[in-house]
Automatic annotation (TrEMBL):
This is Branched-chain amino acid transport system permease protein. The keyword Membrane applies. The chain crosses the membrane at residues 16-33, 45-62, 74-90, 110-137, 144-161, 181-200, 267-291, 311-331. It comes from Lebetimonas natsushimae. Its main location: membrane.
Length: 351
């Protein structure tokens, strides 16, 4: 007898779809039951976790799987959030809301009350912007790529502030319809995870990993590296735009200050913590960062006490930083590295 890692890639199509169906049913059941078990606060936190899972695994596609050090997520999330908000807000509401300058006629009159179409359009707009951006961005590599994409995030935020006839400037948008309920956020999260997983473990995903491991060697083997990076970039931007739309709907109001580099930094921590290139690692990293920050929230309350330890404003960040430091000291490639969680599951079989 010997141990062998469980490998989903070796499953037959019938077993694979059966497994996906079982996981889907279990997760849908959890989405249906959890509001009846948990408090509103807990389900709100879980909904936020689902949104960040969408953002993290899509960001991991370009940064971890394809190996392109990109710092653009806040820009695409902002695009998705604003496109969704502008589509869902009625002309009358927009006419009353814009205080700094009157909205452009096309901005005022555009109205699409269907939330799912609004999310898809938000993702498509983000993907088209990514396609346009890919031509100058992928002329450079490494740290230069990071600088260029970092600048893109700043440009989007400055554009939103300085064009009040489009975005209502620094005042942002509010009264956004709250179509993104806990259940539907979870459903979109599940769909995103399944789609991105199938991309990562398709021939396109193998090409992305080849570019990550050695771009020059991949080019020599006949892989169109620019096309591969562009596909990854557009796919990542599409789901980041969808996540931005869900974020706008769940919060109900947006402003340019919500889409600073700190959002990108959060996502970068998540995918590095979980393991660059690992989808399940990105999910675990999201649970630890977004969920963990909420679990430790009582530490900021001056009335909280556990033995001799008292809550102090800011203590939560100190404790969480120490936890992250310890994790990265003992898991320098992240919790799962570039593997998936099922790669650590051992099964026994006859020799």
């Amino acid at each position: 007898m010997k141990d062998k890692g469980f490998n989903m890639k070796n499953l037959t199509p019938a077993k694979y779809f059966t497994l996906i169906g079982i996981v889907t049913l279990i997760f849908i059941g959890f989405l249906y039951v959890s509001p009846k078990i948990f408090s509103d606060y807990t389900t709100t936190v879980l909904g936020n976790v689902y949104i960040f899972i969408i953002l993290a695994i899509s960001y991991n596609l370009i940064n971890g799987v394809t190996g392109q050090f990109s710092l653009e997520p806040n820009g695409f999330v902002a695009i998705g959030a604003y496109v969704t908000a502008l589509l869902m807000l009625s002309p009358d509401i927009k006419a009353d809301m814009y205080m700094i300058a009157d909205p452009l006629p096309i901005i005022r009159d555009i109205y699409l009350p269907n939330p799912f179409l609004a999310l898809i359009i938000s993702g498509i707009v983000s993907a088209l912007v990514a396609l346009t951006l890919a031509f100058p961005v992928f002329r450079v590599r490494g740290d230069y790529l990071a600088i260029v994409t970092l600048g893109f995030g700043f440009i989007i935020r400055i554009f939103l502030i300085n064009n009040p006839s489009i975005s209502n400037g620094s005042m942002g948008l509010d009264s956004i319809p709250g179509f993104a309920s806990y259940f539907w956020i979870g459903v979109v999260c599940l769909i995103t995870v399944i789609l991105v997983y199938n991309i990562v473990y398709s021939k396109h995903g193998r090409a992305m990993k080849a570019v990550r491991d050695d771009e020059d060697a991949a080019l020599a083997m006949g892989i169109n590296t620019f096309k591969t990076k562009t596909i990854a970039f557009m796919t990542s931007a599409f789901f980041e735009g969808v996540g931005g739309g869900l974020l706008a709907s769940s919060i109900g109001s947006i402003s340019p200050d919500q889409f600073t580099f700190m959002l990108t930094f959060q996502l970068l921590i998540i995918i590095v913590l979980g393991g660059l290139g690992s989808m399940s690692g990105a999910i675990i990293g999201t649970l630890l960062l977004i969920g963990g920050m909420e679990v430790l929230r009582p530490l900021d309350d001056a009335n909280w006490q556990l033995g001799p330890v008292h809550g102090i404003p800011g203590l939560r960040m100190v404790v969480f930083s120490l936890i992250l430091l310890l994790i990265m000291l003992f898991a320098r490639r992240g919790i799962l590295g570039d593997k998936e969680i099922w790669d650590y599951i051992k099964i026994r079989r006859n020799k």
